[in-house]
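Hi V.,

You were right to ask for the full record rather than a summary. Here it is.
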Amino acid sequence: MAAVDTTTGRPGAPAAGGDTPARGPRRAAGTPAGRLRLALSKHWYAWTLVAPVAIVIAVIVGYPLVQGIYLSTTNANDQNSEKQIGQFLHIPATYKSVGLGNYTDILFGANTTFWARLGWTVSWTVACVGISFLIGLALAIMLNRQVRFRALYRTLLILPWAVPAFVSTFSWRFIMNHDRGFLNHALQALGLPAVDWLNDPSIAQISVIIVNIWLSFPFVMVAVLGGLQSIPAELYEAAEMDGATPWQKFWYITLPALRPVSSTVILLSTIWTFNMFPVIFLLTNGGPGDSTQLLVTYAYNKAFTGMRQFGESSAWGVIILLILVVFAVFYRRSLRKQGEVW
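Predicted structure:
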C-alpha cells in the first residue's frame, strides 16, 4: 500500500513491503527470450515428447535441404563429383562455386526452358486441382444423402486413392495404348477413329490431366464429405422453413461451412499436383518431346539422365520450393483476410 504524505495528503512512494508488483520480471517475460523460457518451464513435458520427432525431421529434411541449396551454387556434375571406385580408389570432388550462375542461366539464359515448363506446370496444376475439387465436391454431396448402397459407392470411389499411384498409372498407360488399349478398342467398336493418347503432344497433355484427376478426386471427396457431415442439420431446417431453395441452401450454408475444409484441401492438392512426379514420369516420361514435362520431372532429368548436372538440378529444386512457399504465403494471407486462420 502506498504511503501518504501527512503535509499534503497526496500519495507518496510505495511503502516498504507493499503489494505493488515488481516490474523487472514482467518486462523480462515480455522479451522473446523470456517468453521462450516461460514456454519451456510450463510445457517442458510436451517439448520433451516433440524433441525426438523434431530431431528426426531436421536430419531427414533439413540436412538434404541445406545440402541442395549449397549444391545449387556450384557447378557439380557427374564428372567433378566425389567418387568411390572399389575399396581403395577414392576420387575427391573438384566442383567449384558459381554463385547464382545456375539461377540466372535457368531464369534468363539464352536457351532457357524454365518459362515454358512453368506455364505448363501452372496450367496442369490449375486444371487438375479445379476439376478434381468440383468432382469431389459433387460426389461428396451425393454420398452425403441417404441413398441405397451408399457404403459400396464410397468404397468403390475411394479405390483410385487407395491403389498405389504407380500401379494406377501403369494401368492407364495400358488402357491408353494406341494399338492394344481399351479406349481405342471402344472407339473403334463405335465406328470412331483411334486416338494417339500418349504420342500426340496436345492429346498427351489432356491424357495426363485425366489420369491425375482420376487419382486425386477421392481425397477431395473424403475430406469434403467429412466437412458436410459436420454441418448442423438445424441450419438446413431453418432455411427450409424460411422458403430457401436448394441452390440457396447450397450457396449460403454449404459452401461457407465447407470453407475451412476446402481451403486446406486446395492448398494440399496444389502442392501435391505441382510436384506430381509419378504420373508424368510413368505415363509419358515428359514426352512426346517435352510437351508434358513439369518443373519437377525436368529437374529429375537434369540430375539423373545424360550428363548429370547436380548443381543445376538443385537450383531447379530450390526454385520450385520458393514458388510453392510464395504461393502458400499469399494463399494464407488471403484466407486470413476472409477470416479463415489456420
